[in-house]
Amino acid sequence: MDASIGLPILVGLIAVALLFDFLNGLHDAANSIATIVSTRVLRPQYAVFWAAFFNFIAFLVFGLHVANTIGTGIIEPSVIDASVIFAALVGAIVWNVVTWGLGIPSSSSHALIGGLLGAGLAKAGLSAALWSGLSKALLAIVLSPLVGFLLALVLVAIVSWASVRSTPFAVDRAFRILQFVSASLYSLGHGGNDAQKTMGIIAVLLYSQGYLGSEFSVPFWVVISCQAAMALGTLMGGWRIVRTMGLRITKLTPMQGFCAETGGAATLFMATFLGVPVSTTHTITGAIVGVGAARRMSAVRWNVASSIVYAWVITIPAAAIVAALAYWATRLLPAM
């Protein structure tokens, strides 16, 4: 593959990007529905429809700051060509499929960042990386679960104090209703942050091929396509990861589910408006651990949480290695 590609290859690469977006929705469906399913507020088949709807309409709420960060803030736009995009997507997709198969809630976002980084470095060395944008994404690995953890912890304290005079039955009934709101907000934040990453990939590919003129932008058809692909992926569920997120980390009540989702949603809203590509997986995991720790530290299954953290640590380098290998493999193909 060389820098200038034909329309069939361009269409094929966009299809691969949308496949990643679909797998992102499939892989991360657990982020949106694990709490509301594990508290038995909604059955799984209804929960995925609920989450998919709010995933899709997220473009009506958020700008495209995250798409711009991914498109122009991780590696030098001048380095990007069809081979780099293809290799980046292969790295992210392979890692997503492996972790989905193992039931590990890893980050699709950081798999994509790792894929971009690995492919860019394979092509142009260290000069390919935009360290200012990359450092923002790397910092979010630590901050997003921490912020989710702290917000969920504070919310548990507030609602526990506010509910002290209510009966357990009344509290449970009230938060079963409120979980519909918190789950909607979290799915909205998930669709707003995660779908934009694929938008950025497709837009920078179009830009590198001269289809966007002299100014980088995200066409509306790209926005709609990415939101739809993610929503369809969410509809397919991700039941292995739902079990890990909703049942294995800690046992959740409707009140705790509401606090975890609200804390996670607030974190995603802040990050998306600031243009920071955070991991929705990291965010909701931190929030779930936060509500569990608010009850007592032993309520959290720390061995499960620690295995998730290990997956977080290796996601970027693992996806980067696969992407670098895929890039070098494309160099062996005849120019198209």
TrEMBL record:
Pfam family, any one: PHO4
Parts of the chain that traverse the membrane: 7-27, 47-67, 79-98, 110-131, 138-162, 220-242, 263-289, 309-330
Subcellular location, principal: membrane
Keywords: Membrane, Transmembrane, Transmembrane helix, Transport
GO biological process terms, semicolon-separated: phosphate ion transmembrane transport
One Gene Ontology cellular component: membrane
InterPro entries associated with the record: Phos_transporter
Entry superkingdom: Bacteria
UniProt GO molecular function: phosphate transmembrane transporter activity
Annotated compartments: Membrane
Membrane topology listed for this record: Multi-pass membrane protein
UniProt name for this protein: Phosphate transporter
